[in-house]
Amino acid sequence: MRGHDAAHISGQVAWDLDRNIIGIGDIGRQVEKSLENLSAALISVGATLDDVGSLRLYIRQSHIHQGDAITRALKAAFGDNPPCATWIGVASLAKDEFLVEVEPSVVFLPRTA
């Protein structure tokens, strides 16, 4: 998407390059790893987490009550000014071990000369 003003990035989950799930049972760790994966995807199009306007977090209903852990992970990635986020409780995700999927809204890319 280089050369465009915006990028659409798919939702990110907590797995590593070998598709091993990270943080099984730990929503905070899964949010952290999902955001790490989002950051890597953003870098591939010349953007950073600072370019994210808003997020949608698809959270397993069984863990949606763990807001403190989720908020800590968001603040660790974005500092004291994270983007607005919509938290959506879902019955399940692509794999049973996933507790969260983090999806950015459209990402506005820095303009290049």
Q: How would you describe this structure to a colleague?
A:
This protein has 113 residues and is α+β, with helices and mostly antiparallel strands. Helix content is 26%, strand content 20%. The protein contains two helices and five strands; from the N terminus they run βαβαβββ. The strands form two sheets. It has a three-stranded mixed β-sheet. Helix 2 (67-78) links the parallel strand 2 and strand 3 (84-90). It is globular, with a radius of gyration of 14 Å. The two termini are 16 Å apart. The relative contact order is 0.29.
Give helix % range: 25-40%
Beta strand count? 5
With helices defined by DSSP (H or I, 4 residues minimum), what is the helix count? 2
Rg from Cα: 14 Å
Shape verdict: globular
Characterize the largest beta sheet: strand count, sense, and whether it forms a barrel: 3 strands, mixed
- Strand numbers in spatial order across the main sheet: 3-2-4
By oligomeric state, this entry counts as single chain
Structural class: alpha+beta
Q: β content, as a range?
A: 15-25%
Q: List unreliable stretches of 5+ residues.
A: none
Query: Helix-strand pattern, N to C?
Result: EHEHEEE
Give the mean pLDDT.
Answer: 91
Distance between the amino and carboxyl termini: 16 Å
